[in-house]
Amino acid sequence: MKRRVIIIVLDSVGIGELPDAASFGDKGCNTLGHIAATSKSLNLINLAALGIGNIIPIQNIEPVKTPSGCFGKMAEKSRGKDTTVGHWEIAGVITSTPFPVYPGGFPEDVIEQFKKAAGKEIIGNKPASGIEIIKELGKEHINTGALIVYTSADSVFQIAAHEEIVPPESLYLICEKAREILRGKHAVARVIARPFIGNPGNFTRTDRRRDFSLPCPQKTLLDHAGEKGIKVLGIGKIWDIFNGRGIHESIHIHNNADGCKKTINAINGNRDSGIIFTNLIDFDMKYGHRNDVEGYRKALEEFDAFLPEIENSLKKEDLLILTADHGNDPTTPGTDHTREYVPVLCYGKEIKKGISLGTRDSFSDLGQTAAEYLGIGPLKNGKSFLKLIKE
User: Fold this and answer.
1) What are phi and psi of 55, to 5 degrees?
2) What are phi and psi of 62, to 5 degrees?
């Protein structure tokens, strides 16, 4: 039977501040811990059974005597707390130079180049919450056709447009033009299309968002897989994060529940892919960035309810790994990502139970482990923990 690795990224589900968190403005952050402490009623019975409560103390989630999985946490070696660098590091690539950020908005020469390429005026050009800037400038955008450009504490150039003013396909073309401009010293990690619908006072962002990432400068786990003839299925925004490189098939999702269902369907029906790589973005996009503790809690419990079906779908030689790419503590005053450890939970029918993986030096340990399991390594970075978990 063919070996497979199923990696599910619970986007932004961090598990406590990294030693250098203060230098990122994130002292004291703990996404999962603070949600548990604040909501008082967080119930993650299936994640607890895997061992999530054995990684760090979590209020109302007691450690179990014999977890059904292997458990630990991973530190980020890359200089950042962004989706792109987090996923790249999971796939074995460490980013030593941070991507540029623009707390004062983008420089005039960049904006002028962009306006000329897009053929449109722009409004905004400042750090902002995506929801708030659409509330603030959505009406002006509809009246004038000017694109809403904004950024955040992350390295992103975001373009929001109403779908009736700039159809999504046209917005994607505009983003591709922005991506070409944003190179060299202005090479932001991602250009993001942010379509929205509705009327003033009632705008809603749609699920037709697309990310246009920089190409990864080194070979990733996905590239190594392709070179060995192992197919990779990306579910959610995995294709966007890696610019499609090393990915043979991509499946769009509408929300976390849809992502879980499509992952289960892939596990049950897709024997061609040696890697199934899923990103569940709602934790970050809908709840972390909006400081919505209660929404985040419900999203965690929703995923937890899907976990038994995910586990039961696994074939004999499948390896399931759950992790995250950064934190986004919704209890902090800010609305941006937080510099945190991420959990790593492993499960499989031939995987040991109750093994502590300790604190891993890098997210790339996950990629190295997957590479060794599939026989496609070694990757440039990371220390495999396969010998700890394999029967």
Assistant:
1) -80, -55
2) -75, 145
Class of 4-97+216-389 in CATH: alpha beta
pLDDT band for position 1 (50/70/90)? Answer: low
Q: Could you count the other beta carbons within 10 Å of the beta carbon of residue 213?
A: 24
Paired residues of 234 in beta bridges: 250, 277
Share of the chain above pLDDT 90, in %: 93
pLDDT digits (tens, 9 = 90+) for 10-55: 999 999 999 999 999 999 999 999 999 998 789 999 999 999 999 9
* 256-276 tens-digit pLDDT: 999 999 999 999 997 778 999
Task: Give me 19's structure tokens.
Answer: 């030693």
- Read off the pLDDT of residues 271-316 as tens digits, 9 standing for 90 and up: 778 999 999 999 999 999 999 999 999 999 999 999 999 999 999 9
Domain locations in the chain?
4-97+216-389, 108-212
Q: How many CB atoms lie within 10 A of CB 308?
A: 12
- Altogether, the residues listed in the chain come to a count of 391
β-partners of residue 202 are: 199
Is CATH 3.30.70.1250 what the domain over 108-212 is classified as, yes or no? yes
